[in-house]
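RECORD TYPE: inverse folding
INPUT: structure tokens
STRUCTURE:
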């Protein structure tokens, strides 16, 4: 495996060019973090001229649907290129967008996705409190997950994996072919609940952004918390 910084730079350049090619405008900045078995690609300043027109007309849903369709079409290509650049085989790829902040994230997952946390939490109690808070949010949105795991990708990016999260009505919607509608409904609901939860206290940091995506067939979901640089 190559040195970390050149790999990150190469992935950043690839993602910038990919988005520019398919959306007509690339992001202003791309931040890449690799920590086995994950990669997070967080980009800012990303909205195309056509999307801006739609957003000005409050057509947010149409923009999100288009981006999700485009992402799904490009997923295999992105995974293949990540393998070429990093020599790491990511088998799953997730995406989410923050239209208000013109930002987004891609999350890649390798086959062996057991979370390893070399940075760790300052105190185990803070991790337990944080997990309990996420459990309460998940229960309010549907059900308590069977398991929750967290990984500090960096001092500003906390990745959370939830397993066993779907309720019966959600499974029925997925079986009926309404996965995209379910995602577009779950995201704003869970973001609202997470924003209302006192997560800042257990993290001792302010949360700048929250991204989330799911693999409904595996009944798992990921949440990426982008934290402020300064401690509270």
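DESIGNED SEQUENCE:
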């Amino acid at each position: 495996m190559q040195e970390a910084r050149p790999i990150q730079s190469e992935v950043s350049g690839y993602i910038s060019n990919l988005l520019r090619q398919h959306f007509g405008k690339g992001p202003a900045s791309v931040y890449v973090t690799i920590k086995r078995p994950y990669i997070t690609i967080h980009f800012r300043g990303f909205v195309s001229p056509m999307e801006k027109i739609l957003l000005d007309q409050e057509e947010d849903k149409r923009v999100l649907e288009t981006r999700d369709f485009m992402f799904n079409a490009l997923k295999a290509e992105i995974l293949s290129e990540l393998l070429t650049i990093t020599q790491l085989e990511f088998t799953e790829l997730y995406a989410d967008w923050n239209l208000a902040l013109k930002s987004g994230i891609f999350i890649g997952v390798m086959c062996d996705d057991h979370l390893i946390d070399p940075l760790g939490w300052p105190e185990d109690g803070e991790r337990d409190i944080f997990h309990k808070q996420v459990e309460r949010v998940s229960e309010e949105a549907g059900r308590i997950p069977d398991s929750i795991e967290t990984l500090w990708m960096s001092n500003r990016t906390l990745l959370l994996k939830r397993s066993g999260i779907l309720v019966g009505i959600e499974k029925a919607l997925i079986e009926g072919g309404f996965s995209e509608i379910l995602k577009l409904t779950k995201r704003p609901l869970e973001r609202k609940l997470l924003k209302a939860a006192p997560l800042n206290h257990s993290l001792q940091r302010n949360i700048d952004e929250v991204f989330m995506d799911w693999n409904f067939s595996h009944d798992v979901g990921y949440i990426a918390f982008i934290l402020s640089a300064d401690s509270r």
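NOTES: The chain has seven helices and eight strands.
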